[in-house]
């Protein structure tokens, strides 16, 4: 496996782990454990940083290449980007859901 493929798989793996933590946070919301949910979202955000670092490294490599030697765009890379973006979206949406549910409980 090439170094490029390893970096791409690192993005996929980190994004998947982050998304799993975000859905665990959603479960905590259903249990009205907002503090636990926020803690899991922080873990998800920290894991996302791993994916972000790998992505940034790939972007840096691409920008440092001559025009004739660009990094190849593969289905695997597109898949990694999709996972990374969806993990961020899930995390952000679940964070907003916490805000909504917490505000409704305060008003009770």
Structure description:
The protein is 85% helix and 0% strand. With 108 residues, it is an all-alpha fold. The protein has a single domain (3-107), classed as Phosphotransferase system, lactose/cellobiose-type IIA subunit (Methane Monooxygenase Hydroxylase, Chain G, domain 1). α2 packs antiparallel against α3 (75-107). It is elongated and about 65 Å long.
Q: What count of structural domains?
A: 1
Task: Indicate the mean pLDDT.
Answer: 91
Quickly name the level 1 CATH class: Mainly Alpha
CATH topology: Methane Monooxygenase Hydroxylase, Chain G, domain 1
* Helix amount: over 70%
Q: Return the string of H and E elements.
A: HHH
How many β-strand stretches?
Answer: 0
Oligomeric composition of the shown chains: single chain
**End-to-end C-alpha gap:** 56 Å
Q: Indicate the proportion of strand residues.
A: under 5%
The largest pleated sheet is described as:
none
In DSSP terms (H or I, runs of 4 or more residues), the helix count works out at 3
Give start-end ranges of low-pLDDT stretches: none
**Form type:** elongated
């Amino acid at each position: 496996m090439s170094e490029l493929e390893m970096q791409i798989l690192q993005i996929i793996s980190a994004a998947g782990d982050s998304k799993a933590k975000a859905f665990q946070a959603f479960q905590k919301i259903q249990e009205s454990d907002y503090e636990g949910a926020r803690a899991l979202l922080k873990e998800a955000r920290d894991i996302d940083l791993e994916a972000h670092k790998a992505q940034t490294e790939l972007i840096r490599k691409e920008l440092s290449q001559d025009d004739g030697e660009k990094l190849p765009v593969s289905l695997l890379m597109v898949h990694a980007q999709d996972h990374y973006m969806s993990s961020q979206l899930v995390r952000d949406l679940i964070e907003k859901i916490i805000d909504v549910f917490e505000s409704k409980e305060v008003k009770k």
